[in-house]
């Protein structure tokens, strides 16, 4: 039987509505920001979003924004939340990286990547992941695989609309797993 998260967010259509999933709502330390739609970049609507202009899941301004069709971001680094933003999923699978991670709440991004949500104590800044051998098309830059978003960063929330017209879709409705810093 599907949870309400999956029923509400399963559709990849642009007419569906974003909604903050239960797994995120249960952690009252998490905060959310308003994200612009219809732009090439994922930008917050308000300045000072890291300090002042962020909201609890039940705050009327955030709820109204989402109900009106707005996108939202999930701040990382609060309540020990980090998100492994896997951009090159196929290559990460080939390297064996993803199978080493514990099962957790997972979202497919509008661009085809994956967001793996974890609770991890001790991670204070974003980690950029690159292939140790393969290079980008320029031949000098290591192939970018993704990031682990931590303190002072955000990811686009499940149900939000990507510029491609696809929604950020929950593909694993599991609870958010804990992971040790060393394992991550």
Q: What this model shows, in words?
A:
The chain is α+β, with helices and mostly antiparallel strands and 184 residues long. It has a single domain, classed as Prim-pol fold (2-Layer Sandwich), CATH 3.30.2250. Helix content is 13%, strand content 28%. The protein is built from four helices and ten strands; from the N terminus they run ααβαββαβββββββ. The strands form two sheets. Strands 3, 4, 5, 6, 7, 9 and 10 form a seven-stranded mixed sheet that branches. It has a three-stranded antiparallel sheet with strand order 1-2-8, covered by helices on one side. The longest helix has 8 residues, at 60-67. It is globular.
Layout: helices, strands, pairs:
Layout: H1 4-9, H2 22-25, E1 32-35, H3 60-67, E2 71-76, E3 81-86, H4 89-94, E4 106-108, E5 114-119, E6 127-135, E7 142-149, E8 153-156, E9 169-172, E10 177-178
Parallel strand pairs: 5-10
Antiparallel strand pairs: 1-2, 2-8, 3-5, 3-7, 4-5, 4-9, 6-7
Helix content: 10-25%
Oligomeric state of the chains in view:
single chain
Query: What is the straight-line distance between the termini?
Result: 31 Å
CATH domain class: Alpha Beta
Structural class of the helices, strands and pairings? Answer: alpha+beta
- Number of self-contained structural domains: 1
Give the second-level CATH assignment, the architecture: 2-Layer Sandwich
Write down the CATH topology: Prim-pol fold
For the biggest sheet, the summary is:
7 strands, mixed
**SSE run:** HHEHEEHEEEEEEE
Rg from C-alpha positions?
16 Å
Q: Stretches where pLDDT falls below 50 for ≥5 residues? A: 6-15
Mean pLDDT, nearest integer? 89
Beta-strand fraction estimate? 25-35%
Number of distinct beta strands: 10
Form type? globular
Separate helix tally: 4
């Amino acid at each position: 039987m599907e949870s309400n998260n999956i029923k509400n967010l399963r559709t990849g259509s642009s007419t569906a509505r974003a909604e903050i999933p239960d797994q995120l709502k249960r952690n009252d330390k998490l905060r959310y920001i308003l994200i612009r739609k219809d732009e090439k970049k994922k930008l917050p609507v308000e300045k000072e979003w890291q300090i002042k202009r962020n909201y609890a899941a039940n705050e009327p301004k955030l709820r109204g924004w989402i109900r009106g069709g707005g996108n939202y971001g999930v701040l990382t680094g609060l309540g020990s939340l980090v998100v492994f933003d896997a951009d090159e999923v196929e290559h990460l699978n080939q390297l064996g990286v993803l199978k080493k991670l514990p099962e957790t709440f997972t979202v497919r991004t509008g661009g085809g990547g994956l967001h793996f949500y974890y609770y991890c104590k001790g991670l204070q800044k974003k980690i950029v992941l690159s292939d140790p051998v393969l290079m980008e098309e320029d031949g000098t830059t290591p192939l970018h695989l993704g990031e682990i978003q931590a303190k002072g960063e955000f990811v686009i929330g499940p149900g939000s609309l990507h510029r491609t017209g696809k929604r950020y879709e929950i593909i694993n409705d599991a609870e958010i797993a804990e992971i040790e810093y060393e394992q991550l």
